[in-house]
Write a sequence for this structure.
């Protein structure tokens, strides 16, 4: 089954404790992206990757890191989480980053930082 | 500034009724417009993608329209079902860099 998977689905952590949220897709997509969603706001892009070893900042990259060493994986790293990073996070992928390719989203990771 | 605004913010209708959701955008240059359905706590799922030259596109009971001159789009839902309860999000792609500009969504509740 074609899908985007994220782990963990739920995470409660404390300020400053490094964490990684994994994202994997099995559709051989070139483009992958991370979003955060907060109440009353549209999805905001954190980072995106047009292909392996190519990553770029989105609208709200501060406090986050990513890497794209393999085509299928795009982990999101919070080196020193803070309470304002409490949010619902989505990973997405599409065949390419240009044109009108449909984006497929993962199930989401709900992160709480205390 | 590139923006996407949706109305209403929320809407409650009875099962079986029709409804129309609105999307206005100020994105330039325009590439395409997408409508997504997002169930609570889950990832968005694509309903339609329309380019500049398309003014209507259907996906089952969902019909999206696009007026590129007035920069408006609508999503019409026919014969609503309880499973249509969700947030509906309008997204516009910028042609120069393919950035996606997301609306805040319309929360639709279908009551039996």
């Amino acid at each position: 089954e074609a899908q985007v998977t994220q782990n963990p689905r739920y995470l409660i952590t404390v300020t400053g404790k490094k964490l990684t949220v994994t994202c994997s897709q099995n559709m051989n997509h070139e483009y992958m992206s991370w979003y955060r969603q907060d109440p009353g706001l549209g999805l905001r892009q954190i980072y995106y990757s047009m292909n392996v070893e190519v990553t770029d900042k989105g609208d709200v990259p501060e406090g986050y890191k990513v890497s794209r060493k393999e085509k299928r994986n795009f982990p999101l790293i919070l080196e020193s989480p803070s309470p304002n990073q409490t949010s619902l996070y989505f990973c997405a992928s599409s065949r390419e980053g240009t044109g009108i390719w449909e984006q497929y989203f993962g199930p989401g990771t709900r992160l709480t930082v205390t | 500034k590139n923006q996407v605004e949706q109305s209403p913010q929320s809407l409650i209708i009875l099962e079986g009724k029709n409804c129309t959701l609105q999307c206005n955008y100020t994105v330039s240059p325009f590439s395409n417009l997408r409508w997504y359905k997002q169930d609570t706590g889950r990832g968005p799922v694509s309903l339609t993608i329309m380019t500049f030259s398309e003014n209507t596109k259907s996906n089952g009971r969902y019909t999206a329209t696009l007026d590129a001159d007035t920069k408006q789009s609508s999503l019409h839902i026919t014969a609503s079902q309880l499973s249509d309860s969700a947030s509906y999000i309008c997204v516009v792609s910028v042609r120069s860099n393919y950035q996606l500009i997301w609306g805040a969504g319309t929360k639709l509740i279908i009551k039996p």
About this structure: The first strand of chain A starts at residue 4 and ends at 7. The radius of gyration of chain A is 13 Å. The CA atoms of residues 2 and 27 of chain A lie 6 Å apart.
